């Protein structure tokens, strides 16, 4: 007996070969070719998945990064199993192609590279037909995950108007084990303030300035309420929303539906896990850390909140373009930053004077320095040496991407701390010549955020709570190689990401069951077995032709 899954499929002939979900290409067996009318539509020889992957990788090699991205997009439109299996066997090489940094370049050229639509596009001028359009996509479909975006803050390149939000879904299936047939990408097109797009005659989105204020809120709310009405058990993932909306929308909906924001909660969770691993090396308490976050946008504030919730302390110092966030900044301080404002009397400075990073390091003596600013070189030698003077093992996370915008090169940070720093960075370079490859809470949010989503989806949680996210972060920290060897990486190797995400997902679901937010009637000890059953892997099943089967 075969251990492959058996599917009853209603498609035949060209309809089967053009369905990316069901197409096997040259891997259809002789029996399947006969049953599904494929004998004259395929070359004679039957290939194994290994042979198909080898052929595809040979075709991929030698292309530019953007060429590889385009090739893989085309493959995904033809054959899901081959696409995911190819990337899964070459994670280190190909995830940067389908995600940051190459995906950012592809998105910036989205209108010029456009070949076919993916997911659901909801444009503001079509808001009256939103419910009808939504049901066209989800009716008769089992949806576990919806990723939606208004594309205002895409992967470090800002406002990109209306590209499809598919890269996060790919990671959710590739690394998180969520069935791609049960995922939906939604583009919420509310216009763009990018002049290059507005002046581009090939731009495919709605060519108007971004909708703001009550009209924007009503548009987003109408969509969220459709999700709650028709797919109440799915996870709604907010992706790449701008700083003025990201935290506000998360706060508005997190108590009424299972919603998740990768930029805020995902980056925060992985940073928390990395910090837990780092202090496991230093043997100091989490609550004893003094943390400086340079860059108080969505990611920076998300990290600060996640750490604060886990640490139950207020020893945070946040800086943005006006310097240290403190009460004297008045209108220069955003509403969502006020929770972290330092009192003016702590500094004795004039309310208009800027308190910079070096000032904060010298006065606050931080043990942890985190960068999310995209301000290249912001972590100066003076600041890092001042930090190292007061801390035995300074923890330094320059997280900005792309590499040209990083706050400090890890090699420099290592040199300026005389090799004492514990580093995690978005750059794929070792801090020392003899160092293991460093891993990053920013560049490798895929190392756990798909697992967070998998856990919430698995147990049909009614909410994504902070305690669920912290449970996932704790499980990730427990898997740190540095806990066994202090010179090893703070996070597991990215090649292990699928198995790591599985563990994170189990921890999240167990926590949801323990706190009563799960929508399933399971015991905690049931979770691992249920997760194994639910985990999707790119495997060709055996097909039986059935006119009443799946389409």
Automatic annotation (TrEMBL):
Instruction: Mark out the compositionally biased spans (Low complexity).
Output: 439-450
Residues annotated as binding (S)-malate are 401
Gene Ontology CC: cytosol; mitochondrion
Q: Which residues bind a divalent metal cation?
A: 239-240, 263
Cofactor(s) needed, names only, are: Mn(2+); Mg(2+)
Q: Where is the Malic enzyme N-terminal domain?
A: 76-254
Q: Which GO terms describe its molecular function?
A: malate dehydrogenase (decarboxylating) (NAD+) activity; metal ion binding; NAD binding
Enumerate the residue ranges of region (Disordered). Answer: 427-453
Q: Which UniProt keywords apply?
A: Metal-binding, NAD, Oxidoreductase
Malic enzyme NAD-binding domain: residues covered: 264-513
Instruction: Give the SUPFAM superfamilies listed for this entry.
Output: Aminoacid dehydrogenase-like, N-terminal domain (SSF53223), NAD(P)-binding Rossmann-fold domains (SSF51735)
Among InterPro entries, the record links this protein to: Aminoacid_DH-like_N_sf, Malic_enzyme_CS, Malic_N_dom, Malic_N_dom_sf, Malic_NAD-bd, Malic_OxRdtase, NAD(P)-bd_dom_sf
A GO BP entry: malate metabolic process
Similarity section: Belongs to the malic enzymes family.
What is the official name of this protein in its record?
Malic enzyme
Instruction: Give the organism the record lists.
Output: Schizophyllum amplum
